């Protein structure tokens, strides 16, 4: 009998994708037949990058991974999972503070759909302080984030915040 394809989703806002996200994506992709990267579509929430830009950046940094599918979702994540044959949510945690929040989400998602499991992967220690919001804050005021995001993301961050031009002056 053919065994069922194991599908998981790593969902988030990815505004923008960081090396921390990428680490979780690479590691989780080895655990499942297919790992979907679910980009939350929320036109009411304005980020630094618009939805299409976030998707393009994810595409450019994950093209070496063969079992990745980049998708968008809105509304409840568990509903997307149910409609798309996904039974596992992947989340990354950096610190103890993240665990509180992740447990709350995992419990809520189980309340909403007991058939969907959450697995939590600890990030590599070198990514334990990296977040999209801190990266944006630092780059906006001229800090160097080249070790924290993929090169394509760095270029786009610098372009958007005009830091690239300042470096040439
Ligand atoms: O980038 P983030 O903030 O870590 O992503 C959080 C995300 C998008 C995974 C979460 O907010 C989410 O699942 N939103 C969709 C709405 C939903 O299902 N909410 C209930 C979560 S318990």
Description:
It is a single chain. The chain has helices at 19-29, 51-62, 77-83, 96-112, 132-140, 151-161, 163-168; strands at 7-12, 34-40, 68-73, 88-93, 117-122. With 169 residues, it is an alpha/beta fold. The protein has a single domain (7-160), classed as HUPs (Rossmann fold). The chain has a five-stranded parallel beta sheet with strand order 3-2-1-4-5, with helices on both faces. Helix 1 links the parallel strand 1 and strand 2 (34-40). It is globular, with a radius of gyration of 17 Å. The N and C termini lie far apart (65 Å). The protein binds 4'-phosphopantetheine. 4'-phosphopantetheine binds next to strand 1 and helix 4.
CATH architecture: 3-Layer(aba) Sandwich
Structural class: alpha/beta
Bound molecules: 4'-phosphopantetheine
Oligomer: single chain
Please tell me the total number of domains. Answer: 1
Cα separation of the termini: 65 Å
Number of strands: 5
CATH C-level category: Alpha Beta
Major sheet attributes: 5 strands, parallel
Output the keywords.
single chain; 169 residues; alpha/beta; Rossmann fold; 5-stranded parallel sheet; 5 strands; 43% helix; 18% strand; binds 4'-phosphopantetheine
Quick summary:
This protein is of the alpha/beta class and 169 residues long. The chain is built from seven helices and five strands; from the N terminus they run E-H-E-H-E-H-E-H-E-H-H-H.
């Amino acid at each position: 009998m053919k065994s069922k394809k194991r599908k998981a989703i790593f969902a988030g806002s990815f505004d923008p994708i960081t090396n921390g996200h990428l680490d979780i994506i690479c590691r989780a992709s080895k655990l499942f037949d297919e790992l979907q990267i679910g980009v939350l579509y929320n036109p009411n929430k304005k980020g630094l990058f618009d939805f299409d830009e976030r998707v393009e950046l994810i595409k450019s940094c994950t093209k070496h991974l063969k079992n990745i599918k980049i998708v968008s979702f809105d509304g409840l994540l568990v509903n997307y999972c149910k409609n798309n044959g996904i039974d596992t949510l992947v989340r990354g945690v950096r610190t103890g503070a993240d665990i509180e929040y992740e447990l709350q989400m995992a419990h809520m998602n189980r309340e909403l759909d007991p058939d969907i499991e959450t697995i939590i992967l600890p990030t590599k220690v070198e990514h334990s302080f990296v977040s999209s919001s801190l990266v944006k804050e630092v780059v906006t005021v001229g800090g160097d984030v080249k070790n924290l995001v993929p090169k394509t993301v760095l270029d786009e961050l610098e372009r958007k915040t005009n830091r690239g031009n300042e470096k040439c002056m």
